[in-house]
C-alpha cells in the first residue's frame, strides 16, 4: 500500500525581491523516508527547508502540506501553535545556533519540553531516549556546548529536536562543519535513528555533500538554481544519473556510499 506523504510540496516558489530562489518545486517525503536534497551553494536548499517551516514566505500558488494540512494558509496564532506543536523540527548546520552557549547541555535539550509544560519526569525520560538514539553519553549533560566536540554538539542538537517527538526532521548541512571522524559519527547516528524509528519519523536532509547523503538517504533530490533536475531512489541516482549536473556532482566525489539493508556499501564514482 502506498503511504500518504507526510510532507508534500506543490509548485513551491520563493522570491527574494526580484530574484526567484525556488521555482515550482514539487516533492514528497513519506513516513519513515529519508530524502536527501543535494546541490551547490546558492541552489536554494536552505530556502526550501525554511519555507517548510514557514520562516520565509512562498509565492502565490505554492502549497506546503504537512500531514495533509496546508500550512501555507496558517497565520498569526494558528502558525505559532503549529510551530509549538513540534511536528516539524529543524537542526541547524551550526549547533551553537540552537544550543545556548551559557546553558548546560542537559537543560538545552529539554528546553522545548519545559515551554510545553511537560512534567520533569517525562522530560527526563524523553531526554534519555533521545540521547540513546543519537549515541551520546549522559555524562556530557553537565557540560556547556563549548565543552563538547563538534560532532557531540551536533548530536546534542539532534537530540534536542527529537525530544519533542517530531514527525519530520529537517537537517540543514548537518555534517558540513565537522571533521571526517565527527562527520562519520553523525552520519551513523542518523542511519541508526532512521532504522530505529521507522514510520514514526521522516527526515529531509539538506547538503552539498552527496557522499554523506548517499550513505543515509532512501531518495535523492538534486537541486540546481532553484529547480529539481533529478529525483529518484538514491542507489539509482548514484549509479545511473540522468542529468548532467547530477553526474558532475557525483564525479566530484572519489568514493561515495549508498544504503543497503544493513550497512553502507562503497560505490565508486562514475568516471
TrEMBL record:
Pfam families tied to this protein: ABC_tran, oligo_HPY
BP-aspect Gene Ontology terms: peptide transport; transmembrane transport
GO molecular function, a single term: ATP binding
Annotated signal peptide: none
Keywords: ATP-binding, Nucleotide-binding, Transport
PROSITE patterns per UniProt: ABC_TRANSPORTER_1, ABC_TRANSPORTER_2
Ranges where the ABC transporter domain occurs: 7-250
Annotated Gene3D superfamilies: P-loop containing nucleotide triphosphate hydrolases
Alphabetical list of SMART domains matching this protein: AAA
Source taxon at top rank: Bacteria
Family, per entry: Belongs to the ABC transporter superfamily.
PANTHER family, per the entry: D,D-DIPEPTIDE TRANSPORT ATP-BINDING PROTEIN DDPF-RELATED, TRANSPORT ATP-BINDING PROTEIN
The protein, known as: Oligopeptide transport ATP-binding protein OppF
Organism per entry: Microbacterium foliorum
Amino acid at each position: 500500500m502506498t503511504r500518504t506523504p507526510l510532507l508534500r510540496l506543490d509548485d513551491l516558489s520563493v522570491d527574494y525581491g526580484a530574484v526567484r530562489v525556488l521555482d515550482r518545486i514539487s516533492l514528497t517525503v513519506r513516513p519513515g523516508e529519508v530524502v536527501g536534497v543535494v546541490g551547490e551553494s546558492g541552489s536554494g536548499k536552505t530556502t526550501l527547508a525554511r519555507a517548510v517551516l514557514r520562516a520565509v514566505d512562498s509565492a502565490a500558488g505554492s502549497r506546503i502540506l504537512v500531514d495533509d494540512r496546508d500550512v501555507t494558509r496558517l497565520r498569526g496564532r494558528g502558525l505559532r501553535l503549529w510551530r509549538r506543536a513540534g511536528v516539524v523540527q529543524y537542526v541547524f548546520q551550526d549547533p551553537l545556533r540552537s544550543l545556548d552557549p551559557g546553558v548546560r547541555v542537559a537543560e538545552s535539550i529539554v528546553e522545548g519540553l519545559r515551554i510545553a509544560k511537560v512534567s520533569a519526569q517525562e522530560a527526563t525520560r524523553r531526554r534519555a531516549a533521545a540521547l540513546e538514539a543519537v549515541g551520546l553519553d549522559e555524562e556530557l549533560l553537565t557540560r556547556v556546548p563549548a565543552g563538547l566536540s563538534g560532532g557531540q554538539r551536533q548530536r546534542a542538537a539532534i537530540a534536542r529536536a527529537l525530544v519533542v517527538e517530531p514527525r519530520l526532521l529537517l537537517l540543514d548541512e548537518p555534517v558540513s562543519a565537522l571533521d571526517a571522524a565527527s562527520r562519520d559519527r553523525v552520519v551513523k547516528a542518523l542511519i541508526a535513528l532512521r532504522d530505529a524509528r521507522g514510520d514514526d519519523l521522516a527526515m529531509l536532509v539538506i547538503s552539498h555533500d552527496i557522499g554523506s547523503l548517499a550513505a543515509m538517504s532512501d531518495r535523492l533530490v538534486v537541486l540546481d538554481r532553484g529547480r529539481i533536475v533529478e529525483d529518484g531512489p538514491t542507489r539509482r541516482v548514484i549509479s545511473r544519473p540522468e542529468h548532467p549536473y547530477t553526474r558532475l556532482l557525483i564525479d566530484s566525489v572519489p568514493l561515495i556510499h549508498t544504503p543497503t539493508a544493513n550497512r553502507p556499501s562503497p560505490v565508486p564514482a562514475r568516471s
